[in-house]
């Protein structure tokens, strides 16, 4: 992407939401036991206070869950939101979306049966 296009794109975004999405993406790809604030600050190179406030806000909306030891994972509200996407599945070309996964799966199956 050119520098001018990126500047234009950045001008029309909200940095706090971008950081929130980075936190959610880190939790999506994190380990099964969740990530602590320290894990997230190290991983994302964000200030501890920013991560803390983002997580508190997300927790308030049930978008993340904090366990007893302080590790965060994705919350159940995301399932509710995802179910609305699933109910409009006819709006998506599922065959085109899933094609890379099926292709890889066929290759794996073919290798396994050889």
Task: Explain how this protein is built.
By secondary structure, the chain is mainly alpha-helical. The chain is built from six helices and two strands, in the order H-H-H-H-E-E-H-H. It has a two-stranded antiparallel sheet with strand order 1-2. Strand 1 and strand 2 (72-74) form a beta hairpin. Helix 2 crosses helix 4 (48-60). The radius of gyration is 18 Å and the shape is globular. The model has no long low-confidence stretch (mean pLDDT 83).
Strand content: 5-15%
Question: Could you give the distance between the termini?
Answer: 43 Å
Number of helices: 6
| CA-based shape | globular
The helix-strand sequence is HHHHEEHH
- Main sheet: strands, sense, barrel: 2 strands, antiparallel
Oligomerization: single chain
Arithmetic mean of pLDDT: 83
Short description:
With 114 residues, the chain is mainly alpha-helical.
SSE map:
Layout: H1 3-11, H2 15-29, H3 37-44, H4 48-60, E1 64-66, E2 72-74, H5 77-87, H6 94-113
Antiparallel strand pairs: 1-2
Characteristic terms for this protein:
114 residues, 67% helix, mainly alpha, single chain
